[in-house]
Specification:
alpha/beta, Rossmann fold, 5-stranded parallel β-sheet, disordered N terminus, 16 helices, 8-stranded mixed β-sheet, 17 strands, single chain
């Protein structure tokens, strides 16, 4: 479970009350200003025994939050909607959140907040460094959570940020991430020394990269305003640490273009920004494109000013740009391949001898191969074990989303063949839906369809080979052609295998891949996609 920052239940807050209040009942202390904020003023009323303290609405992302303003009695802790104490409400009504998803920490004098997701044994998750803007500087170790990051790391969020370690350091009031005037926009790194606070940030990131639960190939930096400068600067000086960067309304080092021309960058800026000139981003983008960069994405918010960060971090994409989350978490210093399928992918009872295992072995450290096969999985819900084994209902599907793959290999259909009388009416549409769901999540990822291979007639699981050949395989090929996706035709390769296709299958069941078959499939994928080029 996540760790929590200063988790304080409002009902457990202790107030020092004057003895007089305890003896004579409680006066109403509203602390309500004309603007709705808190003041030190108070008003008295004799028609209630409560001493009420005004609790203003707090925006999401703060330490304590509620969707309405209310009053809390400092004596009995009951909650009221009005200052007269006549309209009592429950804690549930206020949607009070006493837990923040961050924990406050300090490292060598650097204050920072840490968010940790649920992490399974042997799981590795991405690491996101978040650099705040100038207005959140200080030493309270919480203000840095006010903007942008609060939009994606919060209770109930389904953002991919929730599956990552997030570090949010706080820059001291007297410092900057980059010692350069913001109004000047871009600068030259050779003329601006790395700031002392940024050196501390780099040390912190390097420490976390070494933790066994952090995927060192998927470390990202997101920064806004002053932090936008910081994001540009840190990748220019330490790009080997990071897999991608998201500078928002900042400026960068013009003398680092050659270093960054092949580095993945997704950047945002408002054209009417009066705090940091729009040219701070547009000039960097133009220089990178002229240098031949194919890894630069730029969203320009027309007629908008400086405060675009909340919108940017939630950018869902459009015809001209991918979703920020799918783009960011799909980036890795190692290419990521997700193997989607049923027990032929998982390995059935021989998981450690599955084709994804051998594919990983063949490809080495330049790739991370994930096995997201699920025993009994199918496209339609009509084959084999039924509706609950529809692939999108499996944990393997959810895990494949968290994996954020750059290449997605899909081999599903063998189990659908066992219930084909019903499945045939839905197979094509449901397959396309699955593909569409992956495309929405990972717009820049490559999706590859693999035909279901041949099975032995009369096999242990009674999976009809003729149905796969004559019904399932043609639809798989059709979908690949219609959607412009690559096709790996295992059926043809199995039928033409020089040693005979049966050697590629387990002789005890006639369906699942033998060791020779798993190695063959892995090798064929590697060659078909030219993965070692």
């Amino acid at each position: 479970m996540p760790f929590y920052l200063i988790g304080r239940n409002m009902k457990n807050r202790i107030y020092l009350l004057l003895p007089l209040l305890l003896l004579s009942g409680c006066n109403i202390n509203t602390g309500l200003s004309s603007s709705g904020g808190s003041t030190n003023s108070s008003v008295s009323s004799e028609h209630t025994s409560h001493s009420l303290k005004f609790i203003d609405k707090v925006e999401p992302g703060e330490v304590k939050e509620g969707h309405i303003a209310y009053y809390e009695c400092t004596v009995c802790k009951r909650l009221f909607l009005d200052q007269n104490g006549s309209k009592e409400i429950s804690e549930k009504d206020t949607v009070i959140k006493s837990k923040s998803l961050f924990v406050a920490k300090s490292e060598s004098g650097l204050n920072y907040c840490e968010y940790l997701p649920d992490i399974a044994d042997d799981e590795k998750v991405p690491l996101v460094l978040f650099l705040h803007g100038a207005g959140e500087r200080g030493n309270d170790n919480v203000s840095q959570l006010k903007n942008a990051i609060k939009e994606v790391v919060k209770p109930g969020s389904k953002s991919l940020f929730m599956d990552s370690v997030v570090l949010a350091p706080q820059c001291p009031s007297s410092s900057q991430w980059v010692d350069t005037p913001w109004e000047n926009g871009n600068y030259e790194s050779k003329k601006v020394q790395e700031s002392s606070v940024m050196k501390s940030v780099v040390s912190l990131v390097e420490k976390y990269r070494d933790y066994e639960y952090v995927d060192a190939n998927r470390v990202y930096v997101v920064g806004l305003s002053m932090g936008g400068f910081g994001a540009w600067d840190i990748i220019a000086r330490h790009k080997d640490i990071f897999a991608a960067a998201v500078p928002i309304c900042g400026g960068g080092p013009k003398d680092a273009i050659d270093l960054l021309k092949d580095f993945p960058i997704y950047t945002f800026h408002g054209t009417k920004d009066t705090s940091v000139p729009y040219s701070g981003t547009s000039e960097m983008v133009d220089l990178l494109k002229k240098a031949g960069s194919k890894e630069i994405e730029f969203v320009s918010y027309e007629n908008e000013g400086h405060g675009i960060w909340d919108k940017a971090i939630k950018h869902e994409g459009d015809k001209n740009s991918p979703s920020l989350e799918s783009w960011l978490f799909g980036k890795s210093r190692a290419k990521r391949i997700a193997c989607i399928g049923d027990s032929l992918t998982y390995g059935h009872a021989w998981h450690d001898e599955s084709y994804p295992v051998y594919l990983q072995s063949d490809l080495g450290y330049d790739y991370v191969v994930g096995n997201f096969g699920a025993n009994g999985a199918q496209i339609t819900g009509y084959g084999g074990l039924g509706e609950n084994f529809k692939y999108e209902k499996t944990g393997a599907y959810l895990d494949s989303i968290k994996f954020s793959p750059g290449i997605i290999l899909i081999m599903l259909g063998t189990n659908d063949a066992t219930g084909w009388d019903n499945a045939k009416n839905f197979y094509e549409a449901e397959f396309k839906k699955l593909i569409s769901n992956y495309q929405k999540k990972f717009a820049t990822s490559e999706i590859v369809i693999m035909t279901s291979p041949k099975t032995v007639d009369g096999n242990k699981f009674k999976i009809p080979n003729d149905t796969i050949k004559n019904e399932v395989n043609p639809i798989q090929r059709k979908i690949a052609k219609e959607l412009g996706l690559k096709l790996i035709d295992l059926r043809n390769e199995f039928e033409n295998y020089s040693k005979g296709y049966k050697t590629l299958l387990r002789d005890d069941d006639g369906v699942h891949l033998s060791i020779e078959g798993a190695k063959f499939v892995a090798n064929f994928i590697e060659k078909s996609l030219n993965l070692k080029a």
